[in-house]
TrEMBL record:
Gene3D superfamilies: Jelly Rolls, lambda repressor-like DNA-binding domains. PANTHER family: HTH-TYPE TRANSCRIPTIONAL REGULATOR, METHYLPHOSPHONATE SYNTHASE. This is Helix-turn-helix transcriptional regulator. InterPro entries: Cro/C1-type_HTH (IPR001387), Cupin_2 (IPR013096), Lambda_DNA-bd_dom_sf (IPR010982), RmlC-like_jellyroll (IPR014710), RmlC_Cupin_sf (IPR011051), TransReg_Diox_bact_type (IPR050807). Keywords: DNA-binding. It comes from the Bacteria. The keyword Heme does not apply. Residues 16-70 form the HTH cro/C1-type domain. It comes from Microbispora tritici.
Length: 197
């Protein structure tokens, strides 16, 4: 086996462990989602067992990542963008989905439990919950958002957001540095417009 292949295979276990921990999943929960035994998962993550394709496919599905991202395959002329997550303290992960300085910024975030600290700054934020429960603190108000729910607010108001409990939350986060608002065109079911349509 050549050195590059050996290095790729060796890196899979730690990458899998990091993905699982970033999402706040236990080995037991991942085992239930994939059908792979807890001991098998532990051995893969520690590098004591080489993962086969039959094991990697359910793991990629459970973590909602592409298989090539899971094994860090080199780019091959594929037109898709290969995103680079940024890991932060407390175990949170931020994935920039856009790179337009001075314009709307879009991120996918996995936020691990962290201390509350209200902040203010110029701009406008829009949060969409993908998985878990998000606690949003706006001044004196506290709101809990669940998957599929959205909140938007002016960041001049003191605010903080993170998991509502001890499990990570996954969100899409849009931030406008000049205070641009995200335009949501779909109307929630059951709401009528001013003409009564």
């Amino acid at each position: 086996m050549d050195a590059e292949l050996e290095q790729t295979l060796t890196a899979i276990g730690p990458r899998l462990r990091s993905l699982r921990r970033d999402r706040g999943m236990t080995l037991e929960a991942l085992s239930a989602a994939t059908g792979i035994s807890v001991s098998g998962l532990s051995r893969i993550e520690s590098g004591k067992r080489r993962p086969t394709l039959e094991l990697l496919i359910p793991l990629a599905r459970a973590h909602r990542v592409a298989l090539d991202q899971l094994i860090a395959a080199p780019a091959t002329g594929d037109p898709r963008v290969h995103l680079t997550p940024r890991r932060h303290r407390h175990g949170s992960v931020l994935v920039p989905l856009t790179r337009y300085p001075g314009r709307l910024q879009v991120f996918k975030q996995v936020i691990a439990p962290r201390p509350r600290r209200l902040v203010t700054h110029a701009g406008y934020e829009w949060l969409f919950v993908l998985a878990g429960e998000l606690l949003l603190v706006l001044g004196e108000r506290e709101l809990t958002l669940r998957p599929g729910e959205v909140a938007e607010f002016d960041t001049a108001e003191p605010h903080w957001f993170g998991p509502s409990g001890d499990r990570a939350v996954e969100i899409l986060h849009i931030f406008g540095p000049q205070g641009e608002k995200a335009q949501v065109r779909a109307r929630p079911a059951g709401l009528r417009n001013h003409r009564g349509d």
